């Protein structure tokens, strides 16, 4: 259901139960969720895995949006990726799973945003500067660094997704 307030999410006011320092992360994720839903409403299944001019497909962006949120929020919790998460990472953008549809991928992203918001709600602001290791090499970050990166990376891919969708839709006419 579309929001009743047409302002961008960050202009709609604070989100209940989200710590003040994490409001921008939550706002960005909610904005991304709304934009993905709008962009892909009625998007043709036949174009889901097309790569116009060699750019990443719509299907890849949808898989990656979901996966990157899952992975970065896992690291923010101080956990390492599971075998299932590593498998999902390895197949992002590769041959599409049988029966994979646009609504399925959009719904998976929406659910991942909900899980991220739930995690933000229970994140203690006192932990934001705690160190976190990323990946097998345990590259240095912090809880806050990972959460902000998740929001930034998500919005970057929504922008790329927007261009790809528009190019593909233009080719229909």
How would you characterize this protein structure?
The chain is mostly helical and 173 residues long. It has one domain (18-171): Four Helix Bundle (Hemerythrin (Met), subunit A), CATH 1.20.120. Helix content is 55%, strand content 5%. A hairpin with a 4-residue loop joins strand 1 (131-134) and strand 2. The chain is globular, with a radius of gyration of 17 Å. The relative contact order is 0.19.
How would you concisely characterize the structure shown here?
The protein has 173 residues and is mainly alpha-helical. Helices cover 55% and strands 5% of the residues.
Name the descriptors.
5% strand, DinB/YfiT-like, Four Helix Bundle (Hemerythrin (Met), subunit A), mainly alpha, 2 strands, 173 residues, two-stranded antiparallel sheet, 5 helices, DinB-like, DinB-like domain-containing protein, single chain
Biggest sheet strand order reads 1-2
The level 1 CATH classification is Mainly Alpha
**Helix content class:** 55-70%
Q: Report the radius of gyration as a whole number of Å.
A: 17 Å
The chain-level mean pLDDT equals 93
How many domains make up the coordinates? 1
Main sheet makeup: 2 strands, antiparallel
